[in-house]
Design a protein that fits this description.
The chain has about 270 residues and is an alpha/beta fold. It contains twelve helices and twelve strands. It has a single domain, classed as Aldolase class I (TIM Barrel, Alpha-Beta Barrel). One of its GO terms (cellular component) is cytoplasm.
């Protein structure tokens, strides 16, 4: 399981929010590059960068910082926040992003999002499935988590899986920044449901597309609520392909030494 620290950016600074509320902003470092270099020094290879200014503005804003981190570290960066147009995507990739994450765009303009999968490939485009839990499991949220859609979480993921998506970052907004543990049960449900969906498709369609065959193993990235190191092996056992860790690192609940040891042993 990949360890993916998060850097969320507002006004060029490394911040964290609680439950996606911009009014809860806490600044942890004035220099995101400095933070990225600390991660790299600990043997970490991956980084999740969120342009929170971009999420609010519905267009990429902090691409200069992305460029700076990408050019001055060897970290493989997935970048999200406000990516709404082909131009935004080009800027992100030209600024050094290894992958990009689309959340709101996948809900509000599926045609564009599907064209990105087609153009760049399923190894470059990540589906952002941010949700508010409810009786049905969860409803997808959009626009920097400021709006809730009517789309249900698992059908939303399964639908895009059949359209070629492999990587999915799934964030339980109710847990994000709360340091109370991730949504183990929901991740298990997602992995079970998407695997079953593909099996059904393969049985009922002898001419199954190559894209669908490639997505038979969903690469689910857990996000939101990580609070202790002990949660990481549990997520790995569930079958999560990666885990995004934010506040737990910044609040010293999980040390970079622990993450370095985990990486070396796995």
């Amino acid at each position: 399981m990949r360890i993916i620290p998060a850097i969320d950016i507002i006004d060029g600074k490394c911040v964290r929010l609680t439950k996606g509320d911009y009014n809860t902003k806490k600044i942890y470092n004035e220099n995101p590059l400095e933070v990225a270099k600390e991660f790299e020094a600990a043997g970490i290879e991956y980084l999740h960068v969120v342009d929170l200014d971009g999420a609010k503005a519905s267009q990429i804003i902090n691409y200069k910082l992305l460029e700076q981190i990408a050019s001055k570290t060897s970290l493989k960066i997935d970048f999200g926040g406000g990516l709404k147009s082909d131009k935004d995507l080009e800027i992100a990739f030209n600024s050094g992003a290894n992958q990009v994450t689309g959340g709101s765009i996948a809900v509000k303009n599926s045609e564009i999002f599907e064209s990105w999968i087609e153009k760049y490939g399923s190894d470059k485009i990540i589906l952002g499935a941010d949700f508010y839990p409810d009786a049905s499991g969860g409803k997808i949220a959009t626009n920097g988590w400021q709006e809730e859609s009517t789309l249900e979480l698992i059908p939303f993921i399964s639908d895009y899986q059949q359209k070629g998506i492999q990587y999915v970052i799934c964030t339980d907004i109710s847990k994000d920044g709360m340091l109370q543990g991730p949504s183990f049960d929901m991740y298990q449900q997602i992995l079970n449901s998407t695997e079953m969906s593909v099996q059904v498709q393969s049985r009922t369609n002898n001419n199954l597309s190559t894209a669908l065959k490639e997505t038979s193993n969903l690469k689910l990235i857990a996000s939101g609520g990580i609070s202790t190191f002990d949660e990481l092996p549990k997520l790995a056992t569930l079958g999560c392909e990666g885990v995004i860790i934010g506040k737990a690192i910044y609040e010293n609940r999980i040390s970079l030494k622990q993450l370095e040891k985990f990486i070396l042993n796995n």
